[in-house]
Write a structure and sequence with these properties.
This protein is mainly α. It is elongated and about 45 Å long. It starts with a helix and ends with a helix.
């Protein structure tokens, strides 16, 4: 029933829901991969990397490097307090 309604398996859906916010953070900020992975719900950077390769065919590091650096917000001390909210929206 889930597959018929959503068009994918539950595990694939959860993976997509985690990769989406991680992609946005990689595009918009210079936050470290470890923190991006954690905030997006991945257990480690390696788990996030495998999810990116599986869904997008590219690693998170390469994905970020494809975005011009001038379009990203630099990380600053205490950034994580503010960035956590970005994952909730």
């Amino acid at each position: 029933m889930f597959i018929r309604e959503v068009g994918t398996t539950p595990s694939q859906y959860v993976l997509q829901m985690r990769v989406g916010p991680a992609r946005r953070q990689l595009e918009r900020t210079d936050i470290g991969l470890k923190h991006v992975a954690s905030a997006a719900g991945f257990g480690s950077v390696d788990v996030m990397r495998r999810a990116f390769v599986r869904l997008l065919g590219i690693t998170p590091r390469r994905y970020r490097s494809a975005v011009p650096a001038r379009t990203r917000t630099p990380a600053w001390p205490g950034w994580w307090r503010y960035q956590i909210e970005a994952f909730k929206s």
